[in-house]
Amino acid sequence: MTNKATSDIIYTKVDEAPQLASVSLLPVIQSFAKAAGVSVGVKDISLAGRIIAAFPENLTAEQRQPDDLAELGELVKQPTANVIKLPNISASVPQLVAAVKELQAKGYAIPDYPEDPSSDAEKAIRARFDAIKGSAVNPVLREGNSDRRAAVAVKNYAMSNPHSMGEWTPDSKTVVSTMSGNDFFSNEKSVTLTAEQAGPARIELVAKDGSVTVLKDGVSYTAGTVVDATFMSARALDSFLAAQIDATKAAGILFSIHLKATMMKVSDPIIFGHAVKVFLQPVFDTYGEKLAAAGVNPNSGLGALLDQVAAMPEAKEIMAAIDAVMADRPALYMVNSDKGITNLHVPSDVIIDASIPALIRAGGKGWGPDGKEADTNCVIPDSSYAPVYDESVAYFKETGALDPRTAGTVQNVGLMAQKAEEYGSHPTTFEIPHDGTVRIVFANGDILLEHAVEAGDIWRSASTKKAPIEDWVKLAISRQKAEGCQAIFWLDEARAHDAELLKYVRPILAAAGVTDKFQIMTPRAATRLSLETIRAGKNSIAVSGNVLRDYLTDLFPILELGTSAKMLSIVKLMNGGGMFETGAGGSAPKHVQQLTQENHLRWDSLGEFCALGESLKFLADTKANEKARILGHAVDRATQGVLDQNKSPRAKVGQTDNRASHYYFALYWAQALATQNEDSTLLATFAPIAQALEENETTILEELISAEGSPADLGGYYLTDQQKTEGVMRASPTLLGILSEL
Ligand SMILES: NC(=O)C1=CN([C@@H]2O[C@H](COP(=O)(O)OP(=O)(O)OC[C@H]3O[C@@H](n4cnc5c(N)ncnc54)[C@H](OP(=O)(O)O)[C@@H]3O)[C@@H](O)[C@H]2O)C=CC1
Ligand SMILES: O=C(O)CCC(=O)C(=O)O
Ligand SMILES: [Mg+2]
C-alpha cells in the first residue's frame, strides 16, 4: 500500500450528522492534540468519497481521491493502528443512486448505477458499485472483536436524568411475527473444517437435468473455520407475508417489516422486495410485466416504484390500482406520516437494530398514516433472532416498562473480527435462478454442504475463522473478570452454527478455569434473564455473535440510556492496534434535515468524546506518550463535565446544540488540563486557553446561536461544500481564534 498513514490518530470523515459534528469538533481535537505532540489525520470513508475513489478514470485530476478505505483496511492490521471510527452510511440502492446523481450534478462523470447490467462493461461498473453498497466499511475495518458498554459516568448520568419511556400495558396488541420454518434459522447446516478439508472450494447449483452453474469459484477456507450454509424459501416467505398482512388487518394494527438491508446487503433487500410485492400483489398480478419492462425493481422499495410508475404511459391506471390495493390493506407503520413515507418506501429507512428498540421504548407503539401512535405487528421474517424481540415485547407486556432510574446495564462482547458470521456472507449469498441443489464442493470433488432449493430461494453461506472465535472467548473472559458480573453466551445448542461455536467456547472456558462464571442460553432465554437482571438493578454481559452484537448494542442502550449514541465502543484489533468507534448508532439522517431547515444540530457527540479519551490513552501505552495520557484523562473529566453541567445537545432550536456542546467540551477539557499537576508544560499551555474560553462564553454562545432558527445551506447532502459547511459548523470566530493560539 502506498501513501502510508503517518498521523498518530486517524479520525474518519463520514456522512450526515456525525460528519457535520466532526466539522465542528475536529478543530478542537486537532489543536488540543497538537499541544501534546499528537497528530490527528483524517481519512475519508464517506459514501461520496468511496464512490469518487472507485472511478478515477472518469474524473479529472482535481476530482480524483485516493482509496482511503483500502488504506485504512491495511492500517488496522498494523500493531500501531489507532483509529477513531464514526458511523458511515451503509448505502441501500436508493441512497447509492441519489449520491451518484448528486455527484454527477456537481460535474463528476460517475456512471449511472446499472440496475440490470447486461454488457461486460456494465457488469464491471456494477461490481464496483456492489463493493460500495451496504455495509462495506465496517467489515473491512473491524479486524477485531467488539466491546460495547456504557461508561460508568454515562450510565450514572442516565440513572439520575432518566429519559421518557412509553407505557406498556398487558392489553397491548403489539406483536413480533416470524416464520415457523423454511427460513435461514431452520435450514442452517454448519461444519467446522478439519486441516485436511482446508483449501479451495466452489459453490455451484446443480439443476434437475444435471447441468451445473458455478455461483462462486475461488472460495478458500482455513483449518478450523466454521462454515455455515442455509436458505430462506421464497415460497414460504411469500405465504408468511401474505398471512401476516391478513392477520394485521384482522387485528386492526399497523403492519411493519424490520430488516437489516444495509448490513445484510444481499439477502435483506431481496426479502424487502418480497414484502413490497406481496403487499401490492394484485397490482403485480395485473401489471407485473409492464412494471418489469419499465425497470421497476421492488427491492428498491415503494418510493422508487411510485416514481417509476408516474413516468409510465399507463401511470393513471396503475396508480389507481395501487391506491385501491393500499385502501384494502392494513395501515402501514410510517417513517414520516407528514410526507407519506411508509415502511415500504426505502429498504434502508427502517433498520431493525434501531427501529424495534425505539418501538419498545415507546411502549410498543409505531407511527401510523394518521400521524398517531398505534399498536404494531413487527414482522421479522427470519426466526434466528426474532425471539429476542418477541421475548422483550412479551416481558414488557407482563411487567410494564423498564425504569431507567434503577435499571442495571447489559454490556456486549461481540464476535465480528475478520468478517465473522454474516458479515462475510455477501459474496456467498445468491438468489437462486432455478430449481436444483446448491452445494459447496472442494477441489477434490468432496461435498461439504448442500441444500435442495427452488427458484427464487435466498441461499447464503457464512464462515467464521478460528482465531477470531478464540479471541472473542478470551475477550469475554477478560471482560467478565473486570466486571465480576453475570455473563451469558447467547448461543442456542440446537442451532447448527451455535453448536459448532460451542465446541470452541467450552474448552477455552474450561482451560481458563472459568466455566462457572458463564451461562450458555438461547437468545430467548438470555433475553428474559437479562431483562430480569437489569430490572433488579444488576448487570450482565451478553457474549454474542455478530448480528446479536448489532441488535443488542442498540436494544439495551436505547432502553437504559434512551439512545445508543452514548456507548463506549472499542474494537481491540487482533494485531494489536485499537479502533474506537463512536456510540453504537448510525448517521442519523433526520438530524441533517433539522439542521438544513432550522440550523440546529441535535447530534450528541458523547460517543466521540468517549472514543477520543480511549484513543489517547491507548496512544499513551503504544507510543509511550505521557502527554497523550494526560490529555486522555482530561477528556474523561471534560466528558463528565458535559454530563454534570447538562451541556449535551437537546432537540429544539435555542437549546444547547452540537456546536455549543463542543464549546463546553473544549472549555472543560482545557480546565482539566489547566488544573492537573502532572505536566507543567501542558498546564502552562492550557491555563490561558481555559481562561480565554471561560471569559468568552457569552460571545461564543451568541455567535453559535445567532444563525439558529433559519435554514442552513450545506451546498450538498452526500458531498457537502466545505466552505459552506465550515461556515455553518464553525460559526464562532472567537472560538476559532482561541484554538488558533494552540
Ligand atoms: N457503525 C456504522 O457505521 C453504522 C451506520 N449506520 C448507518 O446510519 C444510517 C441511519 O441508520 P438508522 O438505523 O436510521 O440509525 P440512527 O442511529 O442513525 O438513527 C436513529 C435515531 O437514533 C438517534 N440517534 C442516533 N445517533 C444519535 C446521536 N449521536 N445523537 C442523538 N441521537 C442519535 C436519533 O433519534 P432522534 O430522532 O430521537 O434524535 C436518530 O434519528 C444508515 O445509513 C445506516 O446504514 C447505522 C448503524 C451503525
Ligand atoms: O455495518 C453496518 O452496516 C452497521 C453496523 C451497525 O449497525 C453496528 O455496528 O451497530
Ligand atoms: Mg447497529
TrEMBL record:
| Residues the UniProt record annotates as site (Critical for catalysis) | 260, 423
Q: Which reaction does it catalyse?
A: D-threo-isocitrate + NADP(+) = 2-oxoglutarate + CO2 + NADPH
Q: What class of enzyme is it?
A: oxidoreductase
Residues given in the record as D-threo-isocitrate binding sites? 148, 549
Entry binding sites for substrate: 135-142
Q: Which cofactor does it need?
A: Mg(2+); Mn(2+)
Where, by residue number, does Mg(2+) bind? 353, 550, 554
Instruction: Give any single GO term for biological process.
Output: tricarboxylic acid cycle
Instruction: Tell me one Pfam family matched here.
Output: IDH
Q: Which domain of life is it from?
A: Bacteria
GO MF annotations in UniProt: isocitrate dehydrogenase (NADP+) activity; metal ion binding
Q: How is the cofactor bound?
A: Binds 1 Mg(2+) or Mn(2+) ion per subunit.
Xref: InterPro entries: Isocitrate_DH_NADP_mono
| UniProt keyword terms in alphabetical order | Glyoxylate bypass, Magnesium, Metal-binding, NADP, Oxidoreductase, Tricarboxylic acid cycle
Per the similarity annotation, which family is this? Belongs to the monomeric-type IDH family.
The family database entries (NCBIfam families) matched by this protein are listed as: monomer_idh (TIGR00178)
Specify the protein name.
Isocitrate dehydrogenase [NADP]
